[in-house]
Structures are given as structure tokens and as C-alpha cells.
Amino acid sequence: MPELPEVEALAGYLRQRAVGRRVDRLEIAAISALKTYEPAPTAVTGLTVVDASRHGKFLDVHFEGDLHLVVHLARAGWLHYREAFPATTPLRPGKGPIALRVRLDDGSGFDLTEAGTQKKLAAYLVTDLATVPGVAKLGPDALAADLPTFAERLRSRRGQVKGVLTDQSVLSGVGNAYSDEILHAAKLSPFAITDRLTDGQVATLHAATRQILGDAVERSLGQRAAELKGEKRSGLKVHARTGLPCPVCGDTVREVSFADSSLQYCPTCQTGGKPLADRRLSRLVR
Ligand SMILES: [Zn+2]
Predict the structure, then answer these.
(1) How far apart are CA 71 and CA 241, in angstroms?
(2) Mean pLDDT across 97-114
(3) 254: CA distance to ligand 1 center in Å?
(4) Which of 6, 26, 47, 216 could connect to 63 by a Cys-Cys bridge, CB 3.0–4.6 Å?
């Protein structure tokens, strides 16, 4: 799933390539992906792209006249910039990976795609960002938050730190992959309870958050959009590395189920060498 660094890089890419271009048309191939009816997709025709930015994990393409195309890429969504499109015929609604296409006046443009059969990509064409449900609830940006803000937000919600860190209303931008990396860098158990963290642990977690996200943004910027996914994977130390050695201590990276997915961690670095119990499983057994 694209998280803060990837979405930041996609916004950066759009700023370089699309800003200043006029929209030829916005085409919708996956009708269900567009969550708004008013204004209609034709409203962007002829408008200039004036900016591209990020709100948490949401991508925001800003057109003149205060119109925004806001996109949540969900688990398998991505943006592909095209120097040219093979045909001028409009997209046909169908089952392919392309959800939306934006054609620009120089013949280039971009597709918003979604792999797989679970279609969760959500796009909103709005004049007021606060009307996008997920955006209105976003907490402060995880990369931009200073220590007092970070500490206050983290402690505002009592729970396992893994869940609180990925709660977009607490802090925005961090998902499953980077939370694994941040907790590993901070040497914290993903199941540590937020209100029992010491000030020192919170400060370490804050520093790790900025370091992991900042490094990932730096790696991603300047990459071609198509290569961003691979770059993310190569920078990870524990996430999606179950069974492989921890690059810090050499212990074997382990996995445990969490929420509707799983998390990865290093026992030596994070849990005093003890493997975490699978809570979902033990609850079933009991
Ligand atoms: Zn380790």
C-alpha cells in the first residue's frame, strides 16, 4: 500500500510534469472509483493543473478554480505517468486495472490504476477538501509533527502502539509497512501500550518516525514513478521480510497477525528476544 513517502513522491512527480498543463479530459473507467457526482468529471476540461500535494496518504491534484481531484490509492492503487497515450479513443468502462485517466494538452497524462479484484481506490472531485471523508479526519502529518505534537497525539489514544501509529486520525501518513520499520528503528514492541511509554521512548519513536519517513521520501524523490514500488521494498529492514535475518542484529524476522493483516518485527531488537504471541489465535483457542 502506498504510504506517505510514495504518495509524496507521486505528488512531486506530478508537480514536475503536470503543473502548468491544461486538462484535455478526465476519463473514468471504473465508475465505482469516483465517489462524487458534483461537479461532473467534465468540469476539469480546459483547466490548468496548478499544484499536486499530499494529505496523509491522499494524493491531491489541484486545478485552477479551486477544484481538487483527491485520490486514496488503497492497497493496490498506483499512478502511472504516460508521455503519450496509444489511442485517442476514450477509455471504456470495464474490468481492467485503469480506474481513471487524465489527459493533458501536450498529449501526456496519467492513469490511476488498481491491481487485483478488490477495488478500493477512491477518487473525489471536490471544491472543498473537508468534504472528502478521510481527509477531514486526518491527524497531523507524521513527518511534519514536532515532538510535543507527536507525543500529545500518540498519548491521546490508549492502545497498542502499532495500531495507534497507523490510525490516520491520530497521525497521518503511516501505514502497515512503515510502522513496522519505525517500531524496529525505535526498538519498540508493536504491542507496547501507548500510555505506558516513557518520555524517552516517545522521543525515540518520534525521531525514528522522522528518520524512516524522511529517508524513504529522499529515496523516492527523483525516482521514476514506475520504479517507486521496488525502491520502497529495498529500503525495508523488517516489513515483508519474515524468516530473513534482521540487518541490525542478525536475528530472524518474525511475523504475527495484527488487525486484518500481519506485522513483522525482530525479537532481539524489539521484544527482548521473546516472540510475540498471536493474540487472534490465542483468543480463538481460549
Ligand atoms: Zn534485530
Answers:
(1) 29
(2) 95
(3) 10
(4) 47
Provide the b/e sequence for 173-202 (b: ≥16 CB within 10 Å). bbbbbbbbbbbbbbbbbbbbebeebeeebb
From the CA of 209, how far away is ligand 1's center (Å)? 17
| CB 93, CB 44: distance < 8 Å | no
User: In this model, does residue 222 exceed pLDDT 90?
Assistant: no
Pairwise CA distance, residues 197 & 176, whole Å: 20
CA of 179 to the centre of ligand 1 (A): 15
Residue 275, number of CB atoms within 10 A of its CB = 12
For residue 82, give the DSSP letter: E
**Cell, residue 255:** 511475523
User: Of 43, 49, 57, whose CA–CA distance to 16 is shortest?
Assistant: 49
* Residue where the block lists cell 505506558: 196
Ligand 1 center–CA 195 separation, angstroms: 25
**Cα(263) to centroid(ligand 1), Å:** 15
CA distances from 161 to 165, 196, 204, 278 (A): 6, 10, 13, 16
190: preceding bond cis by omega (within 30 degrees): no
122-150, pLDDT tens digit by residue? 999 999 999 999 999 999 999 999 999 99
| Model confidence pLDDT, tens digit, residues 164-213 | 999 999 999 999 999 999 999 999 999 999 999 999 999 999 999 999 99
Residue 165 phi/psi, 5-degree rounding, is -65, -30
Q: 186 CA distance to ligand 1 centroid (A)?
A: 11
